[in-house]
Amino acid sequence: MNNMFKLALRGLMRNRRRSLVTLLAIALGFSAIALFAGYTHNVYDGLARLSIHGEMIGHLTVSKRGMRKEGKLDPERYLLTSKEVETITRLLKDEPHVEMVAPRLALSGLVSNGRASTIFIAEGIEPAAMEHMQKNELTEQEKKTGLYRNTKKQLDPARPEVVELSEGLIEMLHLSPGGQAAMLVNTLTGQANALDITVGHSFNTGNAGSNDKFAFVSLALARSLLDAEGRADRLTVLLDDVNQTAAMRDRLLAKLRGAGFDVEVQTWQDLSDFYNQVHGMFDMIFGFIFSIVLTVVVMSVANSMGMTVVERTREIGTLRAIGLKRSGVVRLFTTESMLLSLIGCIVGLFITLGVRWGINMANISYVPPNSASAVPLLVDMDTGRVLFTFVLMGVVGTLAAYLPARRAAKKDIIDALGHV
Hints:
Blueprint: H1 2-14, H2 16-54, E1 60-64, H3 75-78, H4 82-93, E2 98-112, E3 117-125, H5 127-133, H6 140-145, E4 162-166, H7 167-172, E5 180-186, E6 192-203, E7 214-218, H8 219-226, E8 234-239, H9 245-258, E9 263-267, H10 268-271, H11 273-311, H12 313-321, H13 326-361, E10 365-366, E11 375-376, H14 383-399, H15 402-409, H16 413-417
């Protein structure tokens, strides 16, 4: 085996230029796949944190069965009563991995500055719950970029009349922090109800479609506007580990239905259509790029091994003449291809680390489609995909030499020795 590796290394060194070109093709292909995998991993992770903590969807959402559809036409029927909220909250907090349970209440209506009015969509949530849900919204690297200065939302527990309005909504109504406005909504029974509000801090939703109409209000103010004392349309559950989401959904659903509650439990993936669409799109792009790079690598290795067979025909004849079997010739060429592929992947890994460091330190940003603000261009290290690519490219690169090696092994010794 040691002799086989020595012969394989000598074979690679025999034509350094061709070996170097093939090695660079493998290294750059590996690096391209690893960098794109790291970028998509960062996008997935960022969208997940934006959904769970930024939009405050949480990991799980508990609501009465039918609330998302029929509840829009008959909200009073599908709201959780104060007793149900209290009982379900107590049952959920007894479970492992449950970090927080927060009652929520959605509302919409008109907001006015006294001269002009526009529509708004708001979420009612307790101030303490809002603060807790945003603690893991950004990574340290994202905080350093300074691009998320206006995403933080904060309600004052001592002043329930203070609301958080999105930047576009404040700009449209020419309001400013500390200014006065009024909110008009329909109560659960269909009557009009209006309350004066005080504008708190502004925030950027990150989405161009909602940045001119979204608001966060205290749960007490939402209940007062809707005349829904003690009630909630759903309970948001925050876990201590996102990987427990699916398991806890099944566990909590079984427990609540066993306790007599006709509810449904949805994950953040169920509620975040944008995340699912982006995930599907990037998976397709990654598969397309991966297939192209893999084809280039296979063709490069096969071409290199094919040329090597032609140039080393007399050497193959000599090896056969001194006793090397046909299977030995196949092993020799596949070992050369394996070494070339592995060395290329290792070089590609170092290229990936260098380029990734440069991108992350360059503080590059861009504005994605339908976004209201810039986001940083960051690349993670997707260890799973990197290892998969390393193994697959090594295996495929080795197999790409099989046909040329088999063809070389079939040559007669006399013909091979006389080859010119």
